[in-house]
Design a protein that fits this description.
Structural class: alpha/beta
Radius of gyration: 24 Å
Amino acid sequence: MNAPTPRDLWHGRANDLLGRGIDGRLLIDGQRYHAVDGRCFDCVSPLDGKVIARVARGQAADIDLAVASARAAFADGRWSARSPGARKKVLLAFAERIRAARDELALLETLDMGKPISASLSADVPGTARCIQWYAEAVDKVYGEIAPTGGDSLALVSREPVGVVAAIVPWNYPLLMTAWKLGPALAAGNSVVLKPSERSPLSALRLAELALEAGLPPGVLNVVPGFGGEAGEALALHMDVDAVGFTGSTRTGRLMLEYAGRSNLKRVYNELGGKSANVVFADFDDLDRAAATAVGSMFYNQGESCNAPSRLLVQESIADDFIERLAALAPGYAPGDPLDPGTRMGALVDERHTAVVMDYIRSGLQQGARCVAGGEQVLQASGGQFVAPTVFDAVDNSMRIAREEIFGPVLSVIRFSNEQQALQIANDSSYGLHAAVWTRNLDRAVRMSRALRAGTVHINEYDEDDITVPFGGVKQSGNGRDKSLHALDKYCELKTTWMRIDPA
């Protein structure tokens, strides 16, 4: 009898997990509950189209309960009044619980949203634990200030938690995006109501259970899955929520700002979409590396990344050669079984999103772009949602595939003649999340990095990442920053305390 393959082993683990059943109920005040009205929705795996859990469909009444729990926890100081060192101890234990549950969390992530198990294991779960650990270790090293006032007074500037934070996270990196919100918000002493995407709610619910096991007091972290127009809207409109940390589409980000204006003017931090420009100049002498990075960064996570370099600007003199390299590399990311550790690109999140991606591909062809790789839906007999890695040449920056965020494995190649034109095309976007420049000319690298309107600019690489570095964009890619010490600013109030010093 042949030994089971790694793919067989992961399928066996998935069957065991699903056989035990996945608890899709809300988590409020440390307990699991059905929705107030009893409604649920099916959580469908994009791997095969099968229902893997029934999840409570949170509504305004459930949001009211969760916010009340978070407010009570904040007001009585069970977490907010603890010293930074005490919070640090619990969050470090939380990070270790995440590491201990690595296989379970990775399976939930892959089964729920379709990414390869190898990525869930090597990036998403470790990155989640690292984020929680980093903020735990940072929070007792952030000091207040003494203002430079005159000798007859003393002015102290201190940081206080903002209160109840609404964390509304997307489906493409459910664990990581949740950690980017929870890490600084909890470390600063806030209480949180987390609304995961209805497309990928499972890992967030399990993550909250692990936080409780690590010693986070009940009520400090509450999770209400549900739909954006129901649970998400109710949470963002809630008069007892002090701040919203949102990651998602620019369209929904606009609604977050509107909800703040219609309610209590709560602060809103939006991390939104992108249409990042990856600019390759002819003087860069390692085109193999540039092409491999362009393809790998674009098709990682099925192209479902807000910072994906979906606009590839290539100087005309090397464009034909470069596109040949892209066309040769793209099939190496052909979709496969996400539970096979050898798979490099998995399934799109659901049938509806797959239809959107395929519509963009048709639009590219209709507007005159030339498809040099991919362009079709594949593995349809599996019942899953798979689209081949797609590369378009002859793209004009006015085309839909160059203007709008596709959020799928579609790369658009735009040719340019000189530096001035490259900069004009790169900045001709409503988004401003990431950008990259490939050149051996140091002056050009500095000029371009200064002139590009983006929150992050890479030089001769793409998608470098670390928790110590802020992540966020400009223009319609949002405001505020996730990661780094700067993220703590979003979840703290600055309080000034004046003291009069009488003369002796």
